[in-house]
Amino acid sequence: MSRLLLMREVFRADMDVDGLAKAISTDVSVSYQLLTRVNSAAAGVSQEITSIKHAVLMLGLRGIRQIVATVLLQEMGSQKPSELVIQSLIRASFCEAVASRGPLFERSNELYLLGLFSMIDTLLDSPMELILPKLPLAPDLKDALLGGTSTVSQILDLVTAYEHAEWSFVDRSEEHTSELQSRG
After folding, report:
1. Please, are residues 95 and 69 in contact by the beta-carbon 8 Å criterion?
2. What whole-number distance in Å separates Cα of residue 13 and Cα of residue 106?
3. DSSP 8-state class, residue 118
4. Lesser CB count within 10 Å: N end or C end of the chain?
């Protein structure tokens, strides 16, 4: 639960660069993981990043929040099969990609979190109803994670339909998305 509290702090809407760097720096493990990731060859940075504040400035609030959420999720799921964390990351990327190509393009970073947290109840062995109040999510995202019906939940439903090869549902979803895009 301490990881969820850190995540909520990192995702506060009023968080500035200094506040974000300070919040992340309170956790040695997360700070280490973050600096290791941003300095890896895959990150493609031209100079070594030596502080959390520098990482925030280089990657921006959105980028740093995604990395921190991913690191925290991996740490929370360290006692579970790695496939659960991998599946959560796939869902996160998928939700973000679908949102970025439709009427929710401005919320694609939020939809990343929807996918990322879609299996958190399994990772933490706790009911979603107890976990959600501690997560930094908009009310409609929390509702979608609880099985509600909305435009946001339709994206999560599409992702799970792909996972389960429910192609008729996928086809209907694509038709509905095309209609929304032609209107907007």
Report:
1. no
2. 15
3. T
4. C
